[in-house]
Amino acid sequence: MTKSRPTPAFPLIFLAASLPLLSCGSAYTPSPPPPAGGFTLVWSDEFNGADGSAPDSSKWIYDTGGKGWGNNELECYTSLTQNAQVKGGNLVITSLHQPAYACSDGTIRDYTSARLKTQGLFSQAYGRFEARIKIPFGQGMWPAFWMLGNNITSVNWPTCGEIDIMENIGKEPGTVHGSLHGPGTTTLTSDATSSFNLPAGQNFSDAFHLYAVEWEPATIRFYVDSNLYATFTQSQWPAGGTWVFDHPFFVLLNVAVGGNWPGSPDTTTVFPQQMLVDYVRVYSKQ
Predict the structure, then answer these.
(1) Is the pTM higher than 0.85?
(2) Which residues are known to be catalytic?
(3) How far, rounded to the nearest angstrom, does the alpha carbon of residue 67 sit from its chain's CA centroid?
(4) I need a surface site. Which of 94, 163, 229, 284 has the fewest CB within 10 A?
(5) Are the CB atoms for 278 and 89 separated by under 8 Å?
């Protein structure tokens, strides 16, 4: 069983200097996507299918089960339309509180959700990867838009590499994180991470935002809307780690419930919770 997105026990972390400074009193308005100058669209899902339909099976498959996913997560991922369906021009991933739910892998969980991926259907090295998303909210929620190396079945995690384009944990409603994870020699992983913060009192769950990376050999840049907030390079990679971001990666979308990083839902957490995805688009550099 593969692991994904665990919080490293001994992370090597650096913050990009390009983090924008937003004054606490200023209003933040999501910017329109930047023009795709220099990029050619090569793959997308606009989620324009019939309301209530399952995601396009020519583009997405599912991870299913409830064994914690290396992070002590509390949900059971299913392939049911109650947890992932197209509606109103969006992909809707719904996390439900369903006590004592019997998962397909034999585990018993109190929550269900969905985790979709393009593994075996689409992967790409380099280019621009973006999605317009409205995330859920609440203690214990953990939405993510991310990628894994397509060699994961042969070399396993973390040697395959992981690019977390957007992660949020519910107890930080105004913060999203962008990260890279690869193998280490003195620790399990070598890592780089940064975050983007909205002005005080504003939450990412209040509106759609565009989350993106632009990936070139030896460089990966992270964006929220039109804001470049982090740049990670091979030359900056932590000592003892290996830069493995040089081969095709596939795309994942999911909403986890609970886990080592976000903690468990509490009495303030409202269910159901939904992540709405307007589109996912992948471009190559011209």
Answers:
(1) yes
(2) 162, 167
(3) 19
(4) 284
(5) yes
